[in-house]
Specification:
By secondary structure, the protein is an alpha+beta fold. The protein has one domain. A two-stranded antiparallel ribbon has the order 1-2. Strand 1 and strand 2 form a beta hairpin. The chain is globular. 16% of the residues are buried.
């Protein structure tokens, strides 16, 4: 989840790729931290993009500063 505090939003399907964990592990970690994660939007697959609440990434998005997402998150599957 460290990635979600400092880089950019990710779906639960994408987070394992960045962290080296499994989808199951990511979902268990997310369930364990509950409201510490907030959705900042929806990707092209209709999945929530998550960041850690009150992180630099969330503050940047809330301030309407430009957030550059990796192109692969923007493309149709």
């Amino acid at each position: 989840m460290r990635h979600l505090t400092s880089h950019f939003p990710a779906t639960f399907r994408d987070a394992p790729w960045y962290s080296g964990q499994t989808v199951t592990t990511i979902r268990h970690m997310a369930a364990g931290i509950g409201t510490a994660l907030v959705s900042t939007g929806i990707d092209c697959r209709g999945e929530d993009l998550w960041v850690v609440a009150d992180s630099a990434v969330e503050r940047q998005i809330a301030a309407d500063e430009r957030t550059v997402l990796p192109q692969r998150l923007m493309e149709e599957p």
